[in-house]
Give the backbone structure.
Amino acid sequence: MKDLQRKLDLCATQAVGTRDLWPEIAQRAQNRVRSAPRQAISPLGWVALAVALLVLTGTAAYAAAPILRGVYRINPTWNQSAADASHPVDMSQTQGDCTVTVEQVFIDSERILIGGSVHGPETMSLSPTKLSLVTGDGIDLPFVDGAGDAREDGTSAWVWAFDATGLDALPPELDLHLSFELNGIPRNTAPEPMAEPADRRGDGSVVSVELSPIEPTVYGPFRFAFSAPVADPSK
Amino acid sequence: MDDQQAIAWLKQGDITGLEVLVRRYQDRALRTAYLICLDADMAQDIAQDAFLRAQQRIDQFDDSRPFAPWLLRIVTNEALMLLRRRRHRESAPGGITEATLTDERPSIEDMLAAAETQEAVRSALARLSPKQRVAVVSRYYFGLNEAEMASALGCPRGTIKRRLHDARQRLRRLLPGWVHDAGS
């Protein structure tokens, strides 16, 4: 074996020589830090999450189970999957006055569905950001779709779908690492003008009004590590 | 500074920790990537991506375990993903297409058998599928046993056995004289 190891090493060394990777990695790492908030989710993800934004509000997690079933019904394939083979996770994390619960997960060779609920301050509208799902082997799973629902009593729940078709030879049980943050924005709050709120001068001419940006309250990151069985396609 | 200190710094967001790890492991990462993709420039991209991925995922790293196997697992995953993406739009490295990876023309075997050079090694590896190459590199370059490979690659042990068996069979034909001592 040593001989083979030496030959493989020689083969690779001869081809790539010695390279200093650090300068380019350092540059890319710096760029990543600067642009991290925009990189975390694909454009498709943002569209889908915008839908979820409408419904991820401060709510009571204890009442989430019925509404979560309702979210699964939004997509018939989700509903079937959830009914057939979802695996309970029931893991909660609290950061500040925001509690997130991952309720259940469904895995098959095509997708991974994660359903959960959130309980945050009632005055906040919460939206997910920097959503990431990675296998125990470090493979990033692309976010493909998401939806949520809320009731008048403030209960809310969400389902996120990730593409699993890039995974080869799925093991009987898959380790997953889910992470995300929640941005909280005060509900029903219009941006306050920075300057004097006079949009019309005494002479009748219109002037622009500068609006102060609303800085979201960031909750998280929330990180969940869990395992779940892969659904048997024969069943 | 040892690995644990560098990782602790990196977990706190100090990029100095990443620099220490890159300078320490870049050669192994680069060579591993090359043995899987067989293209020096692609190997450089893969190794860089792997270090950045490691930085991104460092909070998930278990401090009680050694860093190198975790990093090299990321390297192999990055390499397989890149090859998979490129397979759809161009030939495999060296102009070898997926179709010809299963082609076993005796004339090439004879040529490689006669050529005891590094190019012969590269050519033989190029005749394996990417997953077979990962199996060969994991077993004979990292020295992992089958159980460790199954854990690292997230495959059933039977799959690992089959890939190794198929790879060895092919390498025996392509490079007689230096595979037999690798054991089974």
User: Anything to note?
Assistant: Chain B has ten helices and no strands. Confidence is low (pLDDT under 50) at residues 91-115, 179-184 of chain B. The CA atoms of residues 2 and 40 of chain B lie 29 Å apart. Residues 1-87 of chain B form a domain with the Rna Polymerase Sigma Factor; Chain: A fold (CATH 1.10.1740.10).
